[in-house]
Design brief:
Strand content: 15-25%
Number of helices: 25
Helix content: 25-40%
Oligomer: single chain
Distance between the termini: 119 Å
CATH topology of the domain at 640-659 and 667-835: Rossmann fold
Number of strands: 34
CATH class of the domain at 640-659 and 667-835: Alpha Beta
Bound molecules: 2-acetamido-2-deoxy-beta-D-glucopyranose
CATH architecture of the domain at 640-659 and 667-835: 3-Layer(aba) Sandwich
Radius of gyration: 54 Å
Shape: elongated
Structural class: alpha/beta
């Protein structure tokens, strides 16, 4: 970037001086010296990314000292109110899309000649309020699209040559000049041919070549500040005015100080050129000057005279000009007027020659507390009266409108906005007879209540009572109204049939819901922002048959599903109603987790929006799944496994407890049974009829008397007989097995099928493997032939047992039973026999 600075100097001295003859040689040296200390010393370029969605980059008030880097696509770049001193050759390269650039209010002293060359698309350029001491035509040589150029308030003394605006073929709005502007020469504006707006600040202009501004035509509006010339150089001021005055041009003269006959003379030029519309802005004027002005424009076709910001040093004595003719005057507008000698101010009675003509009269913000009835009677043509922002009260209003006697009978528009009026019924009485009144603006007054009945002129269409303190409305509001503004009151409801109403403004009240649409069959526009609306829906809007535009933002919306859904479709134009305040004004207030979220961007889930449906569906699904799982588990015998695990865990625990208690005590002493018999209930008869008698009651005459000793009776543990009542069954089984030497399983199909037996089996199985009893603790007795494959697969432990342990089969033939018993007894006695 530093590379560019030497080039910059050379280009800078290419300016041609204002007074070529005298200063040419000095000039280059001067500029060089001036610019040298201003060259900034490199450093990193700041950046600014304060760009919005429309690519408007607002980098104003950023304390920037250099042009910052901004996104390439920016359309508008606002660099106003920074401390930028220089625009280098490549500060703005790559911004071909830039449409608007503002450098207003910086400290710009140096602009590289080709600084703006890449801004092909630039339409607006604002360089006002800077330190540019000279203008360079090269800056603008590539800005063919430029429509608006503002060079005001810079300390250049002339526009320079070659003509700076020559290439700006599209220019429509131009402002130049400042406190230092001394000279305007013919040709300075060459290239500028047609302007909508021209602003020239030339309070210190001392040299003007007649015709300099004469080539611009048509010229929509000209604003001139020519204070110095009006005071000291009447000829120059007249020449300037003469060059820009056309009948269709609106002439605005600023900052004038008109005190003597002399200073008014340039106005003759205006009258001569038949200017019709004229404004004095920031004017201080004496009585004498006003009278002279009236004389100067005598007979001119001036139709509109605007005075904005006038300080009147006199007393309103303008009768000297009574003879003058001002019948073309149609509109007289006075705003921010200050009368220094307000208490000496004469009534305007002497001004009939002026007051009888205008149809429009505005006296705004000028501390008017009364317009005497006699003055009102002079305003015979008046159709439009604006007395807004004054000091009228109910009492002085009565005087101004002659107590409602029908003075100002042609009045169509009456604006009393911003006064100190309090009584609507007084207001009503004063205008009842104004039979042509269509517009009544009584906004920003102190009305706090409304009478029950009123009689308005039947022509009244527009009524504005906004910014008052109304809490209720009554049938006082006429049914003829087409536009009604009641915004910024304290209304809580609105129920009044207004069949002709087209526009209703209710923003800033306390309404909880939209007023029923059936009351306004013709309503097209409704504004109801900043109330306390929680929501509204399609049917609310459908009750308004003709509604087109709605503004309902900035309310405390409850973002329910219905509302969010409705609003999102309304934003997209569904429902035929246009939300003119933009979707970003619609913000959720509740529920809490959505607070502050624009309704348009809320995404509500199905869970929230269809809660009942969601709950029923999910319950249904859960139920079905539950049933399926249960069926599946049942099919897979999972319950059985579960129960088993539980039982086993319990049994394990209590068994451990017992074992600890048993420590140290002789095992034999604890073994109180020879065998625990595990059997199915269906096999109970066999156990009771055969097994128990056979083993517990040894017979005297044993058929099988191979062995002559009478066999010792065995003690058996049967659950039916020996279990302690009240104890948990598994505990019983557990302790029974622990207290028995053997466990005899009576295997039959019944056994295998019975849950009961499964408990025992499984438990004993663990016991058989974990316990101290050893491998022969289990004895299997097969009551009926049962192959291993008959046993369901899940009884894997039983199957394993069957394959590992030997087992006894209950013989089908009677005669072989003796052998069976012997074998069983032998198995039960086991060790005992070996001891013998
Ligand atoms: C740009 O930003 C400044 C402050 O940063 C603010 O005062 C100004 O109003 C903004 N301009 C626009 C047009 O938004
Ligand atoms: C412009 O004129 C005013 C008086 O009207 C004077 O005070 C001021 O210094 C002048 N400015 C320049 C830059 O000549
Ligand atoms: C009004 O004009 C006076 C000079 O007559 C000037 O000093 C003052 O700044 C102007 N006021 C405004 C608001 O332009
Ligand atoms: C004001 O000046 C004009 C022209 O300079 C002159 O004709 C006229 O008589 C003067 N009016 C007064 C009241 O001095
Ligand atoms: C009445 O005056 C106020 C303030 O000057 C203005 O905002 C409003 O638009 C005017 N009303 C009408 C109906 O012209
Ligand atoms: C009603 O008056 C207020 C305050 O003067 C103004 O802002 C508003 O635009 C007016 N309403 C209409 C519909 O003109």
């Amino acid at each position: 970037m530093l590379v560019h600075f030497p080039a910059l100097f050379i280009h800078s001295i290419a300016f041609l001086p204002c007074r070529m003859g005298q200063l040419r040689n000095l000039h280059s040296t001067f500029l060089l010296l001036l610019f040298l200390p201003l060259a900034p010393c490199g450093g990193q370029r700041p950046s600014c990314d304060r760009c919005d969605l429309r690519l408007f980059c607002n980098c104003s008030h950023g304390g920037l000292t250099r042009v910052p880097a901004v996104p390439d696509g920016a359309l508008t770049l606002d660099l106003s109110f920074n401390d930028i001193t220089v625009v280098t050759g490549d500060d703005l390269t790559g911004h071909a899309r830039l449409g608007s650039l503002s450098l207003h209010g910086n400290k710009l002293a140096v602009i590289h000649p080709s600084a703006f060359d890449s801004l092909w698309g630039l339409e607006e350029l604002d360089l006002s309020n800077n330190q540019l001491t000279a203008l360079n035509h090269r800056w603008f040589s590539k800005l063919g699209a430029l429509q608006e150029l503002n060079l005001l308030h810079n300390p250049y003394r002339c526009l320079g040559s070659p003509p700076v605006f020559q290439r700006l073929v599209r220019l429509r709005r131009l402002g130049f000049g400042g406190p230092a502007l001394e000279e305007l020469k013919r040709g300075d504006l060459s290239g500028v041919t047609q302007l909508e707006e021209l602003t020239v600040h030339a309070n210190n202009l001392t040299r003007y070549e007649t015709g300099t501004l004469a080539d611009v035509w048509p010229l929509g509006r000209v604003t001139l500040s020519l204070r110095g010339p009006f005071l000291t150089n009447i000829a120059l001021a007249s020449a300037v005015l003469g060059d820009v005055s056309y009948p269709e041009t609106w002439l605005i003269l600023e900052d004038l100080h008109l005190m003597r006959n002399q200073s008014v003379q340039p106005s003759r030029e205006v009258a001569r050129r038949r200017v019709r519309k004229m404004t004095f802005r920031n004017l201080s004027v004496s009585d004498e000057a006003i009278a002279d002005l009236l004389v100067a424009v005598d007979g001119a076709p001036l139709t509109s005279l605007f005075l904005d910001g006038v300080t009147l040093t006199g007393e309103g004595r303008w009768e000297r000009a009574r003879w003058t003719d001002h019948k073309s005057i149609d509109e007289f507008f006075l705003r921010n007027a200050k009368v220094l000698k307000v208490f000496q101010f004469a009534s305007l009675l002497g001004l009939q020659f002026l007051l009888q003509y205008p149809r429009k009269l505005s006296v705004i913000n000028s501390q008017v507390f009364v317009m005497p009835c006699l003055t009102s009677r002079l305003l015979v043509n008046l159709q439009y009266l604006d007395l807004s922002d004054n000091l009228l009260t109910d009492l002085t209003l009565v005087e101004t409108l002659c107590d409602g006697d029908g003075t100002l009978k042609d009045l169509r528009v009456l604006n009393l906005s911003g006064n100190a009026l309090k009584s609507l019924s007084t207001m009503n009485r004063q205008v009842t007879k104004l039979s042509k009144l269509t517009h009544l603006d009584i906004s920003r007054n102190g009305y706090s209540s409304m009478p029950q009945g009123c009689s308005w002129p039947s022509t009244l269409r527009y009524l504005n009572i906004s910014r008052a303190k109304l809490t209720t409305i009554t049938p006082c509001l006429p049914a003829t109204l087409e536009v009604l503004d009641l915004s910024n009151n304290d209304l809580k409801s609105f129920t009044l049939l207004l069949p002709a109403l087209r526009e209703l403004h209710l923003s800033g009240n306390k309404l909880l819901r939209l007023p029923p649409g059936c009351l306004f069959p013709n309503l097209q526009t409704l504004t109801i922002q900043s109330n306390t609306l929680n929501m509204f829906d399609r049917s609310d809007l459908q009750s308004y048959r003709r509604l087109q535009d709605l503004q309902a933002g900035q309310n405390k919306f409850v973002c329910s599903c219905d509302f969010v859904h409705f609003l999102q479709s309304a934003v997209q134009g569904g429902g035929g109603v246009h939300l003119t305040d933009g979707e970003e004004s619609y913000v959720c207030d509740s529920p809490l987790y959505l607070q502050g979220e624009p309704v348009g961007r809320v995404q509500l889930s199905v869970v929230v929006c269809h809660r009942v449906l969601f709950v029923s569906v999910s319950c249904g699904v859960a139920l079905v799944v539950g049933i399926l799982v249960c069926v599946l588990l049942w099919r897979l015998h999972a319950f059985w496994y579960l129960k088993m695990t539980w039982v086993w865990l319990r049994a394990k625990r209590s068994s451990r407890g017992r074992r600890q208690r048993r420590d140290g005590v002789e095992t034999e002493e604890l073994l109180s049974y020879d065998a625990f018999v595990s059997y199915s209930e269906r096999d109970a008869s066999w156990v009771e009829n055969f097994l128990v008698p056979e083993l517990e009651e040894p017979r005297e005459n044993d058929e099988d008397s191979v062995n002559h000793r009478a066999p010792r009776p065995l003690t058996l543990c049967l659950h039916k007989r020996d279990f302690l009542p009240g104890h948990w069954i598994v505990d019983n089984i557990m302790s029974a097995m622990e207290r028995s030497r053997h466990t005899v399983f009576i295997l039959s199909e019944n056994f295998v099928k019975s849950d009961w037996c499964r408990y025992e089996l499984d438990f004993s199985h663990f016991q058989l493997f974990d316990g101290s009893a050893g491998g022969d603790a289990a004895i299997l007795v097969l009551l009926e032939p049962l192959s291993k494959d008959d046993i369901p697969k899940r009884f894997c432990k039983l199957r394993k047992l069957m394959s590992s342990s030997t087992y006894l089969e209950w013989p089908q033939e009677e005669e072989r039973s003796g052998e069976f018993w012997r074998k069983l007894r032998h198995a039960l006695r086991g060790e005992e026999d070996e001891d013998d």
